[in-house]
Amino acid sequence: MTPTISIKEVFRLARTKTWRCAIAEIPFGGAKSGITADPKRISKEEKMNLVRAFAVALRPLSPSQYIAAPDTNTAEDKMAAYALANGSLRSCTGKPADMCIRPGEKCGVPPRIRVNWVRSVSGNKNSGGAFGHQPQRSINSC
What we know:
This protein is mainly alpha-helical and 142 residues long. Helices cover 38% and strands 0% of the residues. The protein has a domain at 37-122: Leucine Dehydrogenase, chain A, domain 1 (Rossmann fold, 3-Layer(aba) Sandwich). Helix 2 packs across helix 3 (76-86). It starts with 6 loop residues before the first helix and ends in a 20-residue tail after the last helix.
């Protein structure tokens, strides 16, 4: 969610995601999306409404062909809203740990491991991560 996203930028992000997932041997990748909105100028409720509408619009594709994940200005609260509006806990990663699809089990990739992987791929030990991604506090519970 950013006011300046373009189709060209989304294409480049998707291509990068394909490579990141392939290197990590994660069976995701190749899809990326963007919501054009300025999160500094809209209310929290308006942001949540945009995420919910996006989840409903993607229901025919998600989770069979598209799995949403947290990114710029979208954290675990947005991913929880996405999953609930989409109707499938499998439709996104980055949800709060209490929404794990395997109740009672610890699931997902702890943030410290995810950040270390991103740093090792980028070769940049001083940044929060490669490819414009910053460390997240939530457990990636797909």
